[in-house]
Amino acid sequence: MRWTAKRRLLATPAVRVALILWPMVAWYGFTQRMEHLPETPWQGAGQVSPILAFLAPACAGVAAWEGRRATVGLVTGRAPVRSRLRIAVAALWPVLVMGWGGLVTGVTVVVHQAGNVALPPVTVLTMWAVMLVGFTAGGYVLGRALPHAGGLALVVVVSWVVVAYPPAMTPYWLRHLTGGGMTVCCVVDAEIAAEARLAPALLALGVAAAAVLLIHTGRRVLPLVTALIPVAVGLGGAVVLVRDMEAVPEGPRAEGLRCEGTAPELCLWPEQEPHRERLDDRFSEAYAALTAVGVEVPPRIGNQRWDPGVTYLPLSVEPSSEDVAQALPKALLPSEPPECAWRAGGAFPGGDAYPVLEAWLTIVVGGDPAGPEQAGYFEPRDVELARRVAELPAPEQHLWFTHNRTALDDCTTEPLLDVPATD
Amino acid sequence: MPFHFEHCSFGYRRGRPVLADLSLRVGSGHVALLGPNGAGKSTLMSLAATTERPWSGRVVLDGLGTDNRADLRAWRRRVGWMPQNITAVPGLTVREQVAYAGWLKGLSRDSAWTASLGALSLVNLTEKADVPSGELSGGQMRRVGIAEALVHDADVVLMDEPTAGLDPVQYGVLRDLMAGLSDRVRFLIATHDSRDLADLYTTVIVMSGGEVRFHGDMASFLDHAPGGGEPHRRAEDAYRVLSGAEG
Questions:
Q1: C-beta atoms of A68 and B77 within 8 A
Q2: Whole domain around residue B23: which residue ranges?
Q3: CB pairs below 8 Å between A and B: how many?
Q4: In total, how many domains does chain B have?
Q5: Residue pair A132/A53 in contact by the 8 Å Cβ criterion
Q6: Is the confidence at residue A39, as pLDDT, over 60?
């Protein structure tokens, strides 16, 4: 092997660290519980993202060691023909190979455990790769400036804190600056938000740009101040992107929803598509039963929270018939109390009607509110009332439902929490 | 060679110039730069090596300036540089360090690796090629520095105190090396060492207090010795007179 590769490999600590780091990452991947991994194409991102807590400090630490080597070895004092940037790139590419190799190792193990469904999207992989560039470049600059063992330890600890801590911090936007919140993303109708993919990359690019500036110009005060500009731009841009995000870095899933059928028009994601025929039959039965008692049914229904034209139906990736009986009543009832209920001192008597209505709807659509799937969800007295209402003639059930449904929308209607008297 | 220092001022602290409005044209041949500690020899060498830039004035090497990147690269490619402070590059063996110095000077990795062995053999250090450079003694480290300065076939070699810490045998190696390379390399060497001055150098510059006290050929230099005797003794005497150390 020529010196070009062999000597470079022998001379860099990145190789020795990789020999420890990659098995560590693989071990971490193998110890993850994959049986709960939902079969959607982006959950792998959440499974893999914790390995950044290994990779980022490793990249920053080894890069800092290279920076220290440049300072202690008086590299620029040797009047080099090659630019400072070229010298840094030569020192840092093995570090990046080490980090990216760890990323590939982690993804490979997770995919091996859970199948291709666990493969994180290319954009997320790219974002992580860019993050490692930021940590590497930043580590190198800090290693040059703090060329002693304490400086090296500081770089490793700080970079670990930057990756490991924000996912548990508030405000929530802090979680999305270093890509840490992905462990809780995403259910079937969502994907990792573009903002959450962009923000960490933007910040990392800001750090990398500052590092390039400092490497290029050496230790001078003005470049030090100037280098704060790309960091500020990167950080500011990243914060603007994620400042309104909640704890889960999710956004609407862009593609794949297919709406078919007439009663109702059922919207399913590709992962749910194999169950369409069975679901169509189940929904037809449920819609017929609901229509028979005068419940108005939404024409278009499916697992999509962000489209106002689709009534949201929280179905799992592999929905059973019982899931329909559980999900459909929720879809027919408001998801939140009315605004008046939140006012100070405001009463919301209709709130008591919600569980009874849900239990009754469950019975109407063919489910069992006292069944094992719903164990502990309903109060027995609500189930008992719902059963008694369900035994009434359809017009009376309709009147009872209409009254209580109205009570859910205002704060003045008293709910009917008893079986209405029959003529 | 010729280095041309035009009205150069430089210092390490603002308002405290080590060199003030210094003008000097260093001609061809092997040049010895003599002077006591603090005379400004290392500063002048750093300017010639382009590791420092003058506050004012300019330095020119055969028409090359340091203002644009291409000229600077050409300058540095032509000049081998051994600073006074030679350090081990952590994590590298002796040969890797010399090869790395060659790569820094613009050689390809392959060429630098090949040339490193040649440079180490020039300073009799091939047996230490695979030893971590951090394990070498001070004298051996200076020889590594010399090898680094020679690895990329520079036509001008600047060495700052290359003989400091060398034992007589190692000194002999350096002397023979300079003599052997005299047909293709020109040396500018800052030194306290007046041994073999008359044999090795064609030109002498004596500095003191940041000023050039003498600049001339060897014969003129030796003429400043008050008495006769061996060339070695006369060189010492001349240096003492010119640097103001006498009396």
A1: no
A2: 3-243
A3: 69
A4: 1
A5: no
A6: no
Nearest-10 Cα torsion for A199, A203, A205, A206 = 140
Structure token digits, residue B177:
């090396």
* pLDDT-based confidence at residue A34 (cuts at 50, 70, 90): low
Q: Is residue A314 packed enough to be buried (19+ CB in 10 Å), middle (13-18) or exposed (0-12)?
A: middle
Which of A1, A2, A3, A86 should be substituted to probe chain B, the one whose Cβ sees the most B Cβ atoms within 10 Å? A3
Judged by a CB distance cut-off of 8 A, whether residue A13 touches chain B is: yes
> Which residues of B are less than 8 Å from A83 in CB distance?
69
Could you tell me if B215 and B30 are in contact, meaning their C-beta atoms sit under 8 angstroms apart?
Answer: no
The reported pTM is 0.84
- H/E segment holding residue B98: helix B94-104
For residue range B20-49, list pLDDT tens digits in order.
899 999 887 889 999 888 889 999 999 999
The nearest CA of chain A is from the CA of B24 a distance in Å of 22
Query: Which pLDDT does position B193 carry in this prediction?
Result: 78
Task: Respond yes or no on whether ipTM tops 0.95.
Answer: no
Could you tell me if A72 and B97 are in contact, meaning their C-beta atoms sit under 8 angstroms apart?
no
**Tens digit of pLDDT for each residue in B174-224?**
888 888 887 888 899 998 877 778 888 889 999 988 899 999 998 899 888
The tokens of A374 are what? 């719903």
Shortest Cα–Cα distance, B246 to chain A (Å): 35
Average pLDDT for residues B77-96, to the nearest whole number?
Answer: 92
What CA–CA distances, in Å, run from A363 to A178, A398, A400? 47, 14, 15
In A, minimum Cα distance to B91 occurs at: A11
For residue B114, the surrounding DSSP H or E stretch is helix B109-122
Amino acid at A120: P
Q: Which amino acid is at A310?
A: V
Give residue B245's pLDDT. 63
**Mean pLDDT score, A275-303:** 90
The answer to whether residue A369 scores a pLDDT higher than 90 is no
- Write out chain A residues lying below 8 Å of B141, CB-based: none
* Minimal C-alpha gap between A210 and chain B (Å): 22
